[in-house]
Amino acid sequence: MKRYPIVVLNQGKEAALKRFHPWLFSGAIQRTIGTCLPGDVVEIFSFNREYIATGHYQGGSIAVKLFSFQQREIDYEFWKEKIGAAYRLRTTLGLTNSDYTNAYRLVFTEGDGLPGLIIDWYNGVAVIQTHSPGMHMIKPMLTDILKEIYGERLKAVYDKSSETMLSAPTPNPSPSRGRGEGEGAVGEQRPAPSAQLQAPSAIKNDYLFGSSQGGLISETGHPFNVDWEKGQKTGFFLDQRSNRMFAQFYAKDRKVLNAFCYSGAFSVYALKGGATRVHSVDSSKQAIEWTEENITLNGFGREFHQPFVADVKKFLVQPGEMYDMIILDPPAFAKHHNITHNALQAYIHINASAMNRLNPGSIMMTFSCSQAISREMFRSAVQTAALESGRTIRILHHLSQGPDHPVSIYHPEGEYLKGLILEVS
Q: What pairs with residue 162 in β-bridges?
């Protein structure tokens, strides 16, 4: 079997990894044996020379992201097995052979045992986002695997990693020790493939296979135009699919505000559910244009829908119409733990403002997609907002991301999307 550089743990630091947590933090490392650069496949051994796991070396605080807890060759067949398992789960969910819903997340990082990798499927186009040097370096192999799995159904593979790789570690040699006399080393030095990694600023979004200029998808029977080249993330927020169905259910005979509407998916679902009128608000003119396209695509005109290019925070506090249902799906207010306080204040402010724009007996759907904000922290922020508003509020549902964004039971951090459906009296 091919031999990889070795990461040796400090004594007693293997417990979390033996519970299959996929992150190894730098403070747990005693030393490395062989050259370890960002992107390298490395094997993790305990202080007592016991094999623990295999992963991609990162550098930084999360030093290694682990993708295998069995010692084996990390080759094309390994990655094919991993992506094949992810595909089979989506088949179990009824997603891979459906015209009713033909857009879904194929690979969700740690949830599929592939940390640092996202692949979304848009009716024949696979959009890849890499969040680590190791995954970024194997994109050609991933493309070949997608061709093998999907066959003629695959029309294009688009790499949209330029933004996600900006914060990824760059190849800098790490402190290492060679296979020296008396060390009892179990690895060997070798040239590191990560030396071939482009500087993050040089990474450009591009097609790895085929080409397309955006396309039409179906989500639960509703058509949407998706622009994966210009849109946020991979082009469409697939994680909210099941939550949008709640919006469709509760919208009947209600006047609805969709705040932070992006491309209008919640607005479409609300109208399909029988909303009397929907207002869509986003600060991006482009987002509002996409929203209007999708509203028209689904058969609704201006008599049912009105868009606003506006800052949502200002829109909510200005004098204006009252609503029977408000959907709050803001961007992540906290991408790092060191700014959680400011983020929580923002969640409190925006939720309180929304509550004050609701008629008695209304429905409010509110979300946080900040991984740094726990479910308990978010609920506490919404509770504080309720106290500020002085309204009587009851929780009807706790929400999370859809099942094509699975959460490993060993990696609770993967549950990044938190949501509540509230009744506001």
A: none
Return d(Cα 195, Cα 349) in angstroms, integer: 47
The Cα 101–Cα 105 span in angstroms is 12
Give the position of tokens 């869509």: 280
Report the helix count and the strand count for the chain, using DSSP H and E: 10, 20
Alpha-carbon torsion 45, 47, 50, 52, what sign? negative
State the span(s) of the chain assigned CATH 3.40.50.150: 237-424
* Whether pLDDT at 187 is above 60: no
**Number of C-beta neighbours around residue 242 at 10 A:** 14
pTM: 0.91
- In order of 50, 87, 88, 102, the CA distances from 91 in angstroms are 37, 6, 5, 12
Mind listing the pLDDT tens digit for each residue in 346-373?
Answer: 999 999 999 999 999 999 999 999 988 9
Q: CA-CA distances (angstroms) from residue 227 to 153, 207, 233, 269, 297?
A: 19, 14, 10, 19, 15
Please, which residues have CB within 8 angstroms of residue 307's CB and are 6 or more apart in sequence?
Answer: 261, 279, 280, 281, 288, 291, 292
Every domain of the chain with CATH number 3.30.750.80 lies at 76-167+201-210
CATH topology of domain 1-71: 2.30.130
On whether the 76-167+201-210 domain is CATH 3.30.750.80, my answer is yes
Measured distance CA(51)–CA(246) in Å, rounded: 46
Residue extent(s) of CATH 2.30.130.10 domains in the chain? 1-71
Q: Which fold has domain 237-424?
A: Rossmann fold (3.40.50)
